[in-house]
Structure formats: C-alpha cells, structure tokens
C-alpha cells in the first residue's frame, strides 16, 4: 500500500470513529478539524505535543461506555485523560482515541459519614474547596491543579502522608468502566483484586470515572514549617534535616528542597530566584502548642535566610506552589526511593544541584513512613511502603531550545544518585515515554506480576495494553 493509500485509510478510520461517537455521544467529539482541537490536546507539560485522532470529551459515565464500545470496534490506541497534569502526558496519545474525563466535575460531600465522591475530572483544589467547608479533607498532593485521578491511581504522595497515608490509602471505592464496557463499583469487598490494582497501579485496568474517599477532620487552619537556608550551607542543612527525620513524629511529614527563593512580596527582592535550601513540614493536627513543638526540630537546622513558618488555611497551603508550575511550561521528572540518606548521597545531590540548568528546576526529598508504612506491603499495588524517602529530580524550563540540556541534567542526576536508591521509582515521577522499558519493574516491583494478571483478567484483548506500558 502506498503512503497516499495508507493516509486515506487512516483518515477514513479516524472519520469512522468520530462519526460513530457523534451518533450517540452526549459530550463533545473533537477531531483534527475541530476549532478547539489544539486547545483540547494540550496538557500541563508543554513538552508534550501529541496529536490524537479523536478526543471524546465525556459528559458522564455513559459517554465512557460509548467511547469504549467504539474503541473495541475500531481498536485505536487509547489514552485516558483526567486532570492532564502528569509529567509524561499520558493522557494524550498520537493518532488514537483520547477518552477525556476533564469535564466530569461532580463532587458530593457527606460530612456526617465523612466521605466524598468526586468524578475523575476534578482537581485537588476543587475537591479541597468543597471538603474544607466542613473542616474535612482527604490527603492529596502538593499542587492544587493536579487531578485527583492520576495522583490517586499512582499512589499519591503528599504534605501529610505520614499522618493520613497516601491518597490511594483513603479510597473507599471507585466506579470503573472495564474494557468490556461494564460499569463496576469496586472496593475491598467488591472485586478486591481490581480495587487492589487501582491503588497504585497507575493505568491499564479500565477507566475510573469516580472516586469515593474517606475524609478526616483537618483544617481549615493548619500549622507548617518553612525555613529558607543559604545555599552555601546546603550539605550541613541536609545532614541536619536527615537526622531530624529519624526521630520526627508521625504527625509531621518533613521534606527538603534544593530550589530557588520564591519571587514573592514578603521576601526581599534581592533574594528572589537565588539558590537556597528549603526545609518544610506540615503538622497533621490542629495548630497549637503540640504543633509548635513537633515542628520545632525542622526550624532549628542552622542559621536561616528566612523563617516563614506559621499557620495558614489548608487550601492556601495546597495552592502555594501551583503558580510555580504553570501550564504550558516544560517539565521532566524522575525519582528514586531510598532507605537512607548517606553523607556521600548528600554530597552527590548538592554537586548535581549546583549544575541545575534553570531556577525553576529543583531536587526534592520527601519523608515516608508513619501511616504510609503501616499499610501492609501487599495491601495495594503501591510497592514501596517500607522506603524512608522519595527523591525527585525535577527539571523545569521555558525555552524549547533548552530541552536537551534540561532533560540531560535530570537524567544524569538520576543516574548519579541511583547507587543510593533502594530500588524503584514513583510512577507519577517516572520520566517520559522513552522511559517505559525501565519503568515496568521499577514502578511496581514485586507487584508487577499480580498487576499483569489482573489486567489480563479484566482486559483480555489488550484494549488498554499500550496505555499500561506508558509512564
């Protein structure tokens, strides 16, 4: 078949997918000729520039069922978009069908039962806004613009995970449409294997259309530590921070960042965007004397540039960093789990951070343990509960001409720190499509075989197989 014939055949196939969807779909069908096509295919990471054949923007679960019926008939590559905030941009694919859940924004909070049901297009900022009306929350990530779907399906590291666990640990149930088009509600009691897989298994078992979370009393005001240290003291502060994490109570989730001073009004302008060390931690209870005492060790790691610790609304905490990761800029992230942070590892981190290509790039270490480690190691698909730390190397930049330099820095820093890893990577910080081959075992560890069995059981024809292989 000639190239022209192949192009004609492909175009006819794409048209057939769009036409069949339009015959029964209640949402919006967006093809290459649609005036909103470029906007609809864009995701948070401006590095991602994929061109799907058709985007099926679902209005509800029935639309998801219709989209999967079309997918089973025509067998395009399928990707599933929730919030579109994942670094690898797996919510969009080239030349395939995007099942777009971003318009599904329903939220119902039951304050008496302390539960919330939210559809898959909801972001953490939107969910927090509703739950905090009742002084309740479920643990999310650290950026309010992140979608609840991708973060939760990948595990869900966050500001208070040592107190309340991962996002996926707070799931009561999910509604999911499997490859056969069946709508299922799964929980620990109903189809427990499928429920096990959606808690940390990433993607590839179906289209999760809504999440039911347990809620906890927390907020509206919360206490936190945030201390900026001079960059020349980076190694000393990292060592002191490491030592503090070894005795930190479970009510505190410490983290440390090698980053840049925020360009914000409370901070003197001469410090803006200068390299610094940020020490942070959030107290998983009400502000007060207990919070102050628990956070004190994180505020006493050496002479600071500034101590910005205090209390603030939880919704403010969750959105504080969102502006520093704006839509459309370019991002690349890779991570390691670690059992310890040796002096040699610290020296290596500071060395690679000194080569950071932009002020927007950073290195973050988050502390696990506590409620994360109390969940049984085989209780969910999330595979690295016993790790003490997660190290994330995050490149951020604006100029496409810097792509090679920025990604190269992050990859090299990740390679240099691999000897200090205990094995494994966090699927939500797992690079781009070309990292898929190394991702397979690294993201799921000893759980990979069970996850594959569950995927095969619920998707025997491999409708989601290519989606499952992506970061």
From TrEMBL:
Q: Which family does it belong to?
A: Belongs to the oxygen-dependent FAD-linked oxidoreductase family.
Q: Which positions fall inside the FAD-binding PCMH-type domain?
A: 47-218
Q: Which cofactor does the UniProt annotation name? A: FAD
The superkingdom of the source organism is Bacteria
Keywords per UniProt: FAD, Flavoprotein, Oxidoreductase
Could you tell me which SUPFAM superfamilies the record lists for this protein?
FAD-binding/transporter-associated domain-like (SSF56176)
Pfam (any one) = FAD_binding_4
Give the species this sequence originates from: Streptomyces ovatisporus
> Which InterPro entries does UniProt cross-reference here?
FAD-bd_PCMH, FAD-bd_PCMH-like_sf, FAD-bd_PCMH_sub1, FAD-bd_PCMH_sub2, FAD-linked_Oxidoreductase, Oxid_FAD_bind_N, Oxy_OxRdtase_FAD_BS
**Protein name as catalogued:** FAD-binding oxidoreductase
């Amino acid at each position: 078949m000639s190239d022209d014939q192949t192009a004609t055949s492909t175009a006819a196939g794409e048209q057939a997918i769009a036409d069949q969807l339009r015959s029964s779909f209640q949402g919006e069908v967006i093809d290459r000729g649609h005036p909103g096509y470029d906007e609809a295919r864009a995701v948070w990471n401006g590095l991602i520039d994929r061109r799907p054949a058709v985007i099926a923007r679902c209005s509800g679960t029935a639309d998801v069922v219709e989209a999967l019926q079309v997918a089973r008939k025509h067998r395009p590559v399928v990707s599933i978009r929730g919030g579109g905030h994942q670094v690898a941009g797996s919510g969009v694919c080239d030349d395939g069908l995007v099942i777009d859940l971003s318009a599904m924004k329903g939220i119902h909070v039951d304050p008496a039962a302390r539960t919330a049901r939210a559809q898959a297009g909801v972001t953490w900022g939107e969910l927090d806004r509703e739950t905090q009306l009742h002084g309740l929350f479920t643990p999310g990530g650290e950026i309010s613009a992140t979608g609840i779907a991708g973060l939760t399906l990948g595990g869900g590291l966050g500001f208070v995970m040592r107190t309340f666990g991962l996002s996926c640990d707070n799931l009561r149930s999910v509604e999911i449409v499997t490859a056969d088009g069946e709508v299922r509600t799964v929980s620990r009691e109903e189809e427990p294997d499928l429920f096990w897989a959606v808690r940390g298994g990433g993607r590839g078992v179906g289209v999760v259309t809504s999440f039911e979370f347990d809620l906890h009393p927390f907020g509206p005001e919360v206490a936190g530590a945030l201390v900026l240290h001079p960059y020349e003291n980076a190694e000393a502060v990292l060592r002191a921070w490491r030592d503090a994490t070894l005795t930190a109570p479970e009510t505190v989730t410490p983290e440390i960042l090698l980053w840049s001073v925020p360009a914000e009004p409370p901070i003197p302008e001469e410090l803006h965007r200068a390299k610094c060390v940020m020490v942070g931690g959030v107290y998983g209870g009400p502000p007060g004397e207990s919070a102050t005492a628990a956070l004190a060790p994180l505020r006493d790691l050496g002479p600071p540039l500034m101590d910005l610790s205090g209390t603030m609304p939880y919704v403010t905490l969750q959105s504080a960093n969102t502006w520093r990761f704006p839509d459309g800029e370019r991002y690349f992230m890779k991570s390691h789990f670690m059992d310890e942070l040796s002096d040699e590892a610290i020296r290596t981190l500071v060395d690679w951070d000194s080569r950071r290509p932009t002020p927007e790039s950073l290195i973050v270490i988050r502390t696990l343990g506590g409620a994360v480690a109390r969940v049984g190691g085989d209780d969910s698909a999330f595979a690295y509960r016993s790790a003490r730390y997660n190290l994330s190397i995050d490149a951020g930049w604006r100029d496409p001409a810097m792509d090679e330099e920025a990604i190269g820095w992050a990859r090299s820093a990740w390679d240099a720190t691999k000897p200090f890893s205990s094995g494994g990577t966090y699927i939500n910080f797992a690079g781009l499509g070309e990292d898929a081959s190394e991702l397979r075992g690294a993201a799921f560890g000893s759980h990979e075989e069970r996850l594959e069995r569950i995927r095969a059981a619920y998707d025997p024809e491999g409708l989601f197989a290519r989606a499952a292989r992506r970061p």
